[in-house]
């Protein structure tokens, strides 16, 4: 039996580069650099070509489990390592298993461990491994698992027949090249860190003329040319290898003079102060050729040997890297990629492994040279006693306890921290023991540890500062992942396995007019990272302490009027790269944690009020700030009048976005209609005056579905599982979206997608490729070659800067027919396929052009262009939140955008706004409510 429904295969996680999971705030989840979110599952219906490179195509066959197991054996690489939706555990009743076949939908099949399956059925559907390809710790393959249980399988069939997915060159080439180190929380005490951060942040100095780097404009790749070849080349200092530049030394840049939400003026000039340092001129004129060594050494050189780094006072680290040999940088690059801490020689993951790799001729002499240059520290006795003890293994600590006659009565149950504490307490309580001083104890520990090293804190901090400056235009993940992700991109670009759009990049430092401002930015990033680590450890008390320090730093930075004024002159898409913006964003993101502060019950209110007072640094969160502050007054202080006035002030703000006004209006109506603690009539009427007029509500439909999920501990927040019996008695297990799709199939809509608008958005954006990645002087839109979108992406500036070009392109597309638009899509697909960009190539590729054609015919060109135009106008709001499904009937040229809502699920403000917009554009929309039955625990 063939079904017309198709489901795209998800890409193997082995085909994804390591990532923090945090996607760029400017870019939708779209490319192989970033992990595919577990809740962004896509479904394709009625598109039947098995020999296709498109991951959205599959031939759907219902097979017996024995047949399916053979197919899974042949296609194990495709189905292994696949992320899936979190699904509520399911209990398969024994009677159903015996009477009928159980057909599993893709979201259930790929990870059956999420289901509460009886013990006798657990061997039937094995979970695929979660390990990445190439991992030394990978679990047994699905093939071996299936072969071991195939004899006793019951009749459980796969919902869809897997096909061989197109090979990805990145998987084959990268492999084990980079294995991310496991992260642990920093050992330093939170209080000492935060005190140092306050000292750094409170430095307020007038930028020196020689420190100002706004004068420096370098066109990439004039300064650094990176070669992936590895010839044996005599090392040449950038100061000696000179290529004369035809450009004048008196390079000038345009200054972006701009108010808070205004597009930069095309008239203006940037800082014209002369550059007096001969070293700066030398770097500007010279062309630094980086070659030889391996990828690690070239990466270190590329981020350190830059003109701007000299201006930040990092000349010391530049000289150290310049003087280091390729062999030294091979080792140092690998060490800096690890977690910062002491590394033993013979530990399982210690220095010996580098020696065995034969990375250099004389490993010992390389380490000695690195120590001489003060890039590494080998004196373990210089660290604190508890840190030194922590290097030891548990068994070594027990032996040391015996040596010093520490009570061992409960040693078997002692944890490592407890053992360390026993030594610290002993040293604290008596000056000497066993005739030895503390220094002698350290020597004893040193003898046990053997050779051990740690990266020099100063040099490492300088290199991480260089990395932050190099990557700030495109990196937005967690600090612990910055080196790994930036190095991976550098490596893949060198090997031509990763490509970015071609654009004109200008290395102009807009925000960091002095090294003090850059250090403030780095301090803000460090504090943000510290908060993330503490929250991961569920240490809310110390997280609140660090957030309080960030709040104090935020207020101190705001007091620097010259800094604030300079930031307000640049657009918001550049303003975000500043310490003030980092503080504002982090404080609001963690407002829920601040509400838990018991030592200062007014802390959350004070933070929100200060953020609202300086809302120019939280432009995208203005509505949320008003709502959160109103909640605090309503719930904590029981002051409904004050809460209502805060909402009213937000509604009166002319800069409030359409979505923000909609969110505030909803809360205004709620306050006005309160039955208890009512508002006075004057305030109530004023609130209602801002409420929107009665708008046309989107049509709704209701369908029924049997929930078979089992309520159990830990299943909260997972997707429900539904069952449906076919005409032949088979039982289908599926998600709520798949249930809705089957309903619309019965209504005649044989084609459909569950992609939340990814395909139609990618179709539109591809038609505007040259406009998105074009040059628009004097605006600074591209700073780094690793950007996959312009800096103003997802902001209102994007449309204002390109308004005329966008209008002209839309006018051209309106005159075209469907075939002509598809020709444009094919041309750009052939030219830019798999380029890291705003396009989701999972959907938008040549193989899916027939699907694009039928969808475009049913949606209509007018609606298609209206949707895309809305996205370009306000991408921050409308790049996400489109309806879950788009279903269409090719024969009758009908199309419906469907938002699916399960039991107890409600429309979000963004989803509601999208439905209203689609109705305004003339599209057919519908909200499909699924009413669930069953779902009780039968245990």
Automatic annotation (TrEMBL):
Say which enzyme class the record assigns.
hydrolase
Domain VRR-NUC positions: 816-932
According to its UniProt record, where is this protein mainly located? nucleus
Any single biological process term in GO: interstrand cross-link repair
Record keywords, A-Z: DNA damage, DNA repair, Hydrolase, Magnesium, Manganese, Metal-binding, Nuclease, Nucleus
Q: Where is this region: Disordered?
A: 1-35, 119-141
Chemical reaction(s) catalysed:
Hydrolytically removes 5'-nucleotides successively from the 3'-hydroxy termini of 3'-hydroxy-terminated oligonucleotides
A GO CC annotation recorded here is:
nucleus
The UniProt regions of compositional bias labelled Low complexity, in chain numbering, are: 12-25
**Does this UniProt record's set of keywords contain Lipid metabolism?**
no
Q: Does the keyword Glycoprotein apply?
A: no
Q: Where in the cell is it found?
A: Nucleus
Required co-factor(s) are: Mg(2+); Mn(2+)
Give the EC number.
Answer: 3.1.4.1
The superkingdom of the source organism is Eukaryota
Gene Ontology molecular function terms on file: 5'-3' exonuclease activity; 5'-flap endonuclease activity; flap-structured DNA binding; metal ion binding; phosphodiesterase I activity
Which PANTHER family does this chain map to?
A: FANCONI-ASSOCIATED NUCLEASE 1
Family label: Belongs to the FAN1 family.
Please describe what this protein does: Nuclease required for the repair of DNA interstrand cross-links (ICL). Acts as a 5'-3' exonuclease that anchors at a cut end of DNA and cleaves DNA successively at every third nucleotide, allowing to excise an ICL from one strand through flanking incisions.
Q: What is this protein called?
A: Fanconi-associated nuclease
């Amino acid at each position: 039996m063939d079904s017309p429904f198709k489901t795209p295969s998800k890409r193997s996680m082995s085909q994804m580069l390591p990532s923090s999971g945090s996607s760029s705030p400017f870019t939708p989840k779209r490319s192989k650099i970033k992990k595919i979110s577990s809740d962004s599952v896509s479904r394709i219906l009625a598109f039947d070509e098995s020999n296709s490179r498109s991951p959205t195509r599959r031939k759907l066959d219902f097979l017996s489990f024995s047949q399916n197991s053979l197919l899974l054996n042949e296609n194990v690489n495709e189905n292994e390592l696949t992320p899936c939706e979190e699904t509520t555990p399911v209990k398969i009743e024994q009677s159903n298993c015996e009477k009928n076949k159980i057909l599993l939908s893709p979201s259930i099949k790929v990870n059956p461990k999420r289901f509460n399956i009886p013990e006798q059925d657990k061997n039937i559907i094995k979970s695929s491994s979660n390990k990445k390809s190439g991992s030394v710790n990978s679990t047994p393959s699905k093939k071996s698992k299936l072969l071991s249980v195939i004899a006793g399988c019951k009749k459980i069939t796969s919902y869809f027949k897997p096909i061989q997915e197109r090979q990805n060159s990145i998987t084959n080439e990268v492999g084990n090249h980079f294995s991310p180190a496991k992260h642990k929380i920093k050992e330093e005490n939170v209080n000492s860190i935060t005190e140092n951060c306050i000292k750094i942040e409170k430095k307020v100095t007038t930028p020196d003329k020689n420190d100002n780097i706004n004068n420096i404009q370098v066109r990439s790749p004039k300064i650094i040319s990176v070669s992936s070849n590895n010839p044996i080349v005599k090392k040449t200092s950038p100061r000696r290898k000179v290529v004369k530049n035809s450009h004048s030394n008196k390079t000038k840049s345009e200054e972006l003079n701009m108010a808070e939400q205004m597009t930069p003026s095309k008239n203006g000039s940037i800082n014209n102060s002369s550059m007096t340092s001969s070293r700066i001129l030398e770097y500007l004129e010279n062309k630094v050729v980086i070659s030889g060594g391996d990828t690690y050494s070239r990466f270190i050189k590329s981020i350190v040997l830059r003109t701007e780094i000299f201006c930040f006072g990092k000349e010391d680290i530049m000289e150290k890297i310049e003087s280091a040999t390729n062999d030294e940088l091979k080792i140092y690059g690998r060490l800096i990629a690890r977690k910062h801490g002491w590394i033993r020689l013979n530990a399982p993951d210690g220095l010996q492994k580098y020696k065995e790799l034969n990375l250099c001729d004389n490993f010992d002499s390389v380490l000695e040279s690195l120590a001489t240059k003060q890039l590494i520290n080998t004196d373990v006795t210089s660290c604190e006693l508890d840190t030194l003890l922590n290097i030891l293994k548990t068994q070594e600590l027990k032996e040391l306890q015996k040596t010093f006659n520490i009570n061992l009565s409960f040693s078997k149950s002692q944890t490592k921290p407890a053992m360390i504490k026993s030594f610290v307490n002993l040293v604290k309580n008596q000056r000497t023991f066993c005739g030895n001083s503390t220094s002698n104890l350290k020597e004893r520990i040193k003898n046990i540890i053997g050779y051990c090293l740690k990266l020099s804190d100063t040099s490492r901090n300088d290199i991480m500062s260089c990395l932050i400056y190099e990557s700030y235009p495109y990196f937005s993940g967690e600090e612990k992942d910055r080196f790994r992700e930036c190095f991976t991109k550098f490596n893949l670009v060198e090997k031509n396995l990763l490509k970015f759009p071609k654009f004109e990049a200008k290395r102009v430092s807009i925000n960091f007019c002095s090294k003090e401002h850059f250090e403030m930015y780095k301090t803000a990033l460090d504090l943000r990272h510290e908060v993330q680590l503490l929250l991961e450890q569920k240490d809310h008390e110390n997280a609140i302490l660090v957030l309080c320090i960030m709040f104090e730093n935020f207020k101190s930075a705001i007091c620097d009027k010259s800094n604030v004024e300079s930031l307000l002159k640049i657009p918001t898409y550049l303003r975000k790269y500043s310490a003030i913006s980092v503080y504002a964003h982090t404080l609001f993101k963690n407002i829920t944690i601040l509400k838990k502060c018991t030592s200062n019950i007014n802390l959350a209110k004070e933070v929100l009020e200060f953020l609202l007072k300086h809302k120019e640094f939280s432009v995208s969160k203005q509505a949320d700030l008003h709502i959160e502050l109103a909640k605090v007054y309503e719930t904590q202080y029981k002051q409904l009048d004050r809460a209502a006035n805060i909402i009213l002030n937000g509604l009166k703000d002319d800069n409030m976005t359409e979505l923000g006004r909609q969110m505030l209006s909803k809360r205004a109506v709620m306050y006005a209609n309160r039955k208890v603690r009512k508002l006075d009539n004057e305030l109530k009427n004023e609130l209602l005056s801002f409420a929107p007029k009665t708008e046309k509500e989107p049509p709704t439909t209701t369908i029924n579905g049997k929930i078979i999920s089992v309520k159990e501990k830990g299943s909260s927040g997972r997707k429900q599982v539904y069952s449906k019996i076919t005409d032949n008695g088979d039982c289908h297990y599926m998600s709520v979206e798949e249930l809705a799709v089957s309903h619309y199939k019965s209504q005649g809509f044989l084609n459909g997608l569950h992609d939340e608008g990814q395909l139609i958005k990618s179709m539109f954006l591809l038609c505007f490729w040259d406009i998105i990645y074009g040059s628009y002087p004097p605006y600074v839109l591209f700073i780094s070659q690793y950007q996959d979108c312009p800096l103003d992406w997802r902001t209102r500036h994007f449309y204002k800067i390109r308004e005329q070009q966008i209008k002209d392109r839309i006018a051209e597309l309106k005159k075209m027919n469907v075939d002509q638009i598809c020709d444009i899509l094919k041309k750009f697909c052939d030219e830019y396929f798999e380029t890291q960009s705003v396009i989701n190539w999972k959907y938008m590729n040549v193989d899916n052009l027939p699907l694009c054609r039928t969808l475009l015919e049913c949606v209509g060109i007018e609606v298609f262009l209206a949707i895309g135009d809305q996205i370009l106008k306000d991408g921050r709001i409308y790049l996400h939140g489109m309806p879950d499904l788009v279903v269409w009937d090719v024969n009758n040229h009908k199309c419906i955008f469907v938002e699916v809502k399960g039991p107890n699920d409600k429309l979000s403000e963004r989803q509601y706004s999208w439905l209203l917009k689609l109705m305004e554009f003339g599209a057919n929309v519908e909200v499909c409510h699924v009413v669930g039955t069953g779902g009780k625990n039968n245990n």
